[in-house]
């Protein structure tokens, strides 16, 4: 019998999983129990998992195909494209461009047509205090809206834009230009249906430029309300990291934010595997590199009007 234990960490989401050694291959029963817990709690914390890069990749693969981060090609592990390095440590003698990754509320890779299914983040180094990450339950965000509001937003689409990733101005301009060129604005449903649970959730966040079919002012008002609502403290789990915590989140029904609540002179090193998701987006233009963001967006909107 498995010694696996699952202990909820929050009412809205989050559970701790103990009694499993993720360095070992998973048997079918354990994988299925973890997957069920993941669907139920959305964020799973596995403490004390001193995984090698290969072991993290192997465990992650048990839950889906891994993304090779082609949309952020210069931020990956030098030998393993499946691992994104999220760190404030120096890389090649320069501050890492990922030192401010995830500083606004977001769902991973919504600036691509294929947002991640989920992600697995391993903490290798952390500051003595702070450097926390918060996740919010987007099922609850949707389900607590009034039926009338749900009907109003049910078939809206939102324009997600990589240029709204926070802190781009602190990154290498050449890499930022490449990231924007690789990622023209993309439209995703504002309300999505989880492919495994069938539940509806809100896909909002701070990387959305507008809502298709609404004026700028209307978009700003609706998004302002939805974002504030989605970030309500009662929907949130805040994780205080320990070294060798592996956190696995369901990106299809959550959003998250990495807090800059720590002394940046202290190293923080996180390794992320992303699970490939389903294609839910429509790319709006392929010509962003030749145009200003505003011009590209106007052309995209004209094309779909
Ligand atoms: C991310 O958004 O994937 C980064 C999360 C973190 O560094 O805590």
From TrEMBL:
GO terms for molecular function: metal ion binding; taurine dioxygenase activity. GO terms for cellular component: cytoplasm. SUPFAM superfamilies: Clavaminate synthase-like. The keyword Lyase does not apply. The keyword Iron applies. Keywords: Dioxygenase, Iron, Metal-binding, Oxidoreductase. Residues 6-273 form the TauD/TfdA-like domain. PANTHER family: ALPHA-KETOGLUTARATE-DEPENDENT SULFONATE DIOXYGENASE. This is TauD/TfdA family dioxygenase. It comes from Vineibacter terrae.
């Amino acid at each position: 019998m498995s010694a696996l234990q699952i202990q909820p960490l929050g009412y809205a989401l989050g559970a701790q999983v103990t009694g499993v050694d993720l360095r070992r291959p998973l048997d079918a029963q354990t994988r299925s129990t973890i997957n069920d817990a993941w669907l139920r709690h959305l964020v799973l914390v596995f403490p004390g998992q001193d995984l090698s890069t290969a072991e993290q990749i192997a465990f992650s693969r048990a839950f889906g195909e891994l993304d090779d981060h082609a949309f952020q090609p210069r931020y990956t592990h030098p030998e393993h494209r499946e691992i994104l390095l999220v760190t404030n440590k120096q890389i090649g003698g320069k501050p890492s461009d990922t030192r401010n990754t995830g500083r606004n509320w977001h769902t991973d890779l919504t600036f691509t047509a294929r947002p991640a299914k989920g992600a697995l983040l391993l903490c290798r180094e952390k500051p003595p205090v702070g450097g926390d990450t918060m996740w919010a339950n987007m099922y609850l965000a949707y389900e607590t809206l009034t039926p009338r509001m749900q009907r109003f937003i049910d078939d809206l689409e939102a324009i997600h834009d990589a240029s709204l990733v926070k802190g781009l101005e602190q990154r290498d301009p050449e890499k930022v230009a490449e990231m924007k060129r690789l990622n023209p604005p993309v439209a995703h449903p504002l309300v999505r249906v989880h492919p495994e649970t069938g539940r509806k959730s809100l896909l909002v966040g701070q990387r959305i430029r507008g809502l298709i079919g609404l004026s700028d002012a209307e978009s700003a008002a609706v998004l302002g309300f939805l974002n504030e609502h989605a970030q309500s403290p009662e929907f949130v789990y805040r994780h205080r990291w320990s070294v060798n915590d592996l956190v696995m989140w369901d990106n299809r029904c959550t959003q998250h934010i990495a807090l800059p609540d720590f002394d940046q002179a202290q190293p923080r090193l996180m390794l992320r595997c992303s699970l490939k998701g389903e294609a839910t987006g429509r790319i709006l233009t392929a010509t962003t590199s030749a145009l200003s963001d505003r011009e590209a967006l106007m052309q995209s909107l004209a094309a779909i009007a």
